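=== RUN LOG ===
request id: a7f3
mode: sequence -> structure
chains: 1
length: 456
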Amino acid sequence: MKIDRRFTSRRQNPYEGITFVKRSSEIRNPDGSTVFKLENIDVPEAWSQLAIDILAQKYFRKAGVPQRDQNGQPAIGPDGKSVLGGERDARQVFERMAGCWTHWGKSYGYFKTPDDAESFHDEMCYMLAHQMAAPNSPQWFNTGLHYAYGLSGPAQGHYYVDPKTHEVVKATNAFEHPQPHACFIQSIEDDLVNENGIMDLWVREARLFKYGSGTGTNFSKLRGDGEGLSGGGKSSGLMSFLKIGDRAAGAIKSGGTTRRAAKMVCLDLDHPDIEEFIDWKVIEEQKVAAMVTGSKICAQRLNAVLKACHTVDGEGALRLDLDQKTNPVLREASKASRILSSMNMTRIGMGRPTRPSLGKTPTIASGFPMSFLSRSKPTVTGNSSAERAARSGRPSRHGSCGTGSRGRPGFVLIQGRSTIPPSTNGIPVRRTVASMPRIPVPSICFWMIRLVILLP
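=== RESULT ===
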């Protein structure tokens, strides 16, 4: 590659003309206690406080970075070893990323001349400092930690393509070949513990979340609630496993610093559990509404009770009266507080005020062929597995894991009274549908509609 200079000059510092100043970043709880605080960090003067907070709280490496003294020399401890800590200067982050990219380019022959490599490095540092360009979050988290600081650690199960042999090999170091990619689409098989199965997916997701990346999966291959297993039992259903994955994702600090993990779950419209899948998010929204409204009601009623405790005597002096027999205002406020709180918790919480909150982490989506809307007219109602399968017109899976027809595009809809296959216990269900042959639908999403329900 030939790299022309647009913003920098040769043999000139790429930060020439940029004023770096000392700033601080802090997060506090509503009660005033400190969650995070980092003082006297060096950042470009033009940066906003939001940009400073994101850099300091999320993207600065917090450990393993050699520190420097006031003269800019490596700090040495009493034991004669380098003093280690976290990054404290935006230029450290710019240099480790741009320096690592340049090192890779030089090592594998990307640049035409050494001057082009130097131009690339300087131009990238300039653009990062001026916020003219920025990589995705995993780059800020991971890129250059081994190159700049020599960080190493046990392998985490990652693979990479060896640039020399062009073969996929397993990494032996957690930092030498970092995970700088933003999002991954992962597959899953209808299997519990084997490779690429359900539990294996949670391990792979954890590996991606740990280093700051996101992941998405279409779970349509998994059988629905009550469908048969190869061992003769019944499946606990798709939703049971989705909730496990959601809890796992919520427990991982993405990128090693932040709490949220980017996760998307998809389900085709013809899956027997599609209604419960969609309702999952609806219920979560109702829980959020219940908590917000309940908090406002509690604050309002509590303030009314506290205010009623203070009365004015005959001489105009303020006094505290906690006796409801002599303080009718306090008596009414207490009564209203008990009644309104109970009514609203029942109405807004739908009788489940203590139900645990699930489904907060992922974005969910469902997809279906366009022809399904115009040609399928199911009339079956009810929530049993057989009725859901009949209502969707979806062929049921065979008893053994991974051998069924779920996941294949198209539908086979049968008119009149039919017997549902063994996976739904052969329950006869009456349905009236338009005759429709199996329609081949490409596996790519050109013929699919994605209904996306975003997480708050």
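=== NOTES ===
Confidence is low (pLDDT under 50) at residues 346-355, 396-456.
Residues 19 and 46 are 8 Å apart (CA to CA).
=== END ===
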